[in-house]
Amino acid sequence: MANLDRYLYPPMSAQRIIPMVLWPISLLMVVHRSVFLGVNGDRTDDFKPVYAAAYNFLNGLPVYGENYATVDPHYLYPPSGTLLMAPVAVIDYERARWAFIAVSVVALLVCAYLLTRMFGYALDSWVMPTVLFFFFSTETVSHTLIFTNFNSFVLLGLIAFLMLMLSRHDWWAGVPMGLTLAVKPVLAPLMLLPLLNRQWRVFALAIVIPIVLTVVAWPLSVDANDFISRTVPYLGEARDYYNSSIAGNGAYFGVAPWLILLLRVAFVLMAAFSLWFLYRYYRTTNELMWLAVSSGVLLCTTFLVGSLGQGYYSMLLFPLLMTVLLPGSPMRNWPAWLGVYGCMTFDGFYSDRWTAFGWMVEYNKVTWGWSLLMIAVFCSLLFRWLDMRSDGVAGMVPPVRSESDAPLGPAGGTDAATSTATGSEDAVSLSK
Fold this sequence. Notes:
single chain, mainly alpha, 2 domains, globular
């Protein structure tokens, strides 16, 4: 009987089983989200105003003449973004939208690959199909494709920016940042990171690219001044629809202004402590952890305390989520992932039986998801600092880690990093 075991029960490791299960599922999810849900579209179409603006720009017509009193999607990109988006209007609307969805999917696939590589795993590891499966199971990726939004390219710019900073290609790091800022300046808070790390060259192209594109685009647009006089003031308002920021959510539900202000200040203070702790104890010991977690803290805080935070912005938190593979990550606790569920779930909570309750859960899930994620990261770092202070080691300077001490395996390896990246802190609590 023992001789038959190798035929009846062929050995297979988890590192082989996971890709075998997730690759076909993930690839079919990519097809479903893009070819079916994406092409079908929904009541919200973010691409239509972009196409209209690009068409008007190419034909010398006004771009910024929309009625901002309506709840329809509006064109909010600056003239530099209009210049970059103008090629989409060279063909008809339907084919342009399909092409935009296709390129967005390619960008997301590249993002999944780059994120996997950035954390030390290879294409043939179990991590790549897991990341891809997670990407396309979320609301943020699904609605980016369904609504045909620019977010996929912002995520690609974010990951390229972080990877180039890590590899000290400072001049090149400014290129993806500059291009995203020229279209959609949601990543602007991340310019704090090269400032803190004294990587001054990053600023060169990150600032020059949008300026040059603006100088070129401004005289080509017949109403560029209206972007300053009409669009910029609108961007500063906290609208009460399709807005999951604290101010937008509070305006929708009629929350008292003093409470909205108090919550915004509280999250800014939490972010300030988290950024200080990460800079103080991780910048020289684990730069990948510092950059990935700090970027997530900065962006999540911006979504919450800014004037506009939309649910599909959550894809920009993917680098933060990936740190769960690193020892010491503040993502190694269940409240953080409950927050991730809130801001990324594709589940709907509308109920025919409990109408009011389901409606409130649905309209609050992204806001409480971001909030819980921020609180979990803050508490994880705060409790570490309190423990360090009680033990009298809070004032110690962390030693600079050598390459051999790094928590990850070689970037080109497969699962060499698995044991060190996941084995030492499997039972991490919120306070550790």
